[in-house]
């Protein structure tokens, strides 16, 4: 029951971010590789780098953009501690090949509350390609190494949101980075890249 309520809340926050993100978007920029838990270099499948415009890092002389993070909190009862959320929407939208005219964006949601901490990735449309709710993706923070992450679909019926397994590692890199590119496998679409401007995160 709590999972369904949480999925609904994340969906509502994501919808708000998509509306807010439509107002404007800015580009993205260099860190350090660390190994933790299941984190590993992604060298298989012939992927040696995250390519395309999404992977470009802006010139350091460019003025810094305003932070794009949105913050919210939720509590079931007035007496309990709130669950806090920070959400960031991808700068780019990805056009579906199988559905003409359809696009999707990816949202990163950080969660911290009485029931624990975590990071959820949510597609505004479409589904992640997972095997029995087990999902894999690649991430590149700034110009660092490409790292592999795993996660589980929040719903077996609709894999549009996944909970990452390596939260401490992901958050540690995220705090240091100015930009991030996530490469995810989507159903009927193959590997697609989503770029984020991660500047200005304020998180416990």
What does it look like?
This protein has one domain. The longest helix is centred in the N-terminal third of the chain and has 20 residues, at about 1-20. It is globular, with a radius of gyration of 16 Å. With about 200 residues, it is α+β, with helices and mostly antiparallel strands. The strands form 2 sheets. Strands 1, 2, 3, 6, 7, 8, 9, 10, 11 and 12 form a 10-stranded antiparallel sheet that branches. A two-stranded antiparallel ribbon has the order 4-5. It is about 15% helix and about 35% strand. Mean pLDDT is about 80; it is low at about 1-5, about 20-50 and about 50-55. It has 2 helices and 12 strands.
Which terms would index this structure?
single chain; 204 residues; alpha+beta; 10-stranded antiparallel sheet; two-stranded antiparallel ribbon; 2 helices; 15% helix; disordered N terminus
Ordered list of secondary-structure elements with their pairings:
Elements: H1 2-21, E1 40-41, E2 70-74, E3 83-89, E4 94-95, E5 103-104, E6 106-113, E7 116-123, E8 134-141, E9 146-153, E10 161-164, H2 167-176, E11 179-186, E12 190-197
Antiparallel strand pairs: 1-9, 2-3, 3-6, 4-5, 6-7, 7-10, 8-9, 8-11, 9-10, 11-12
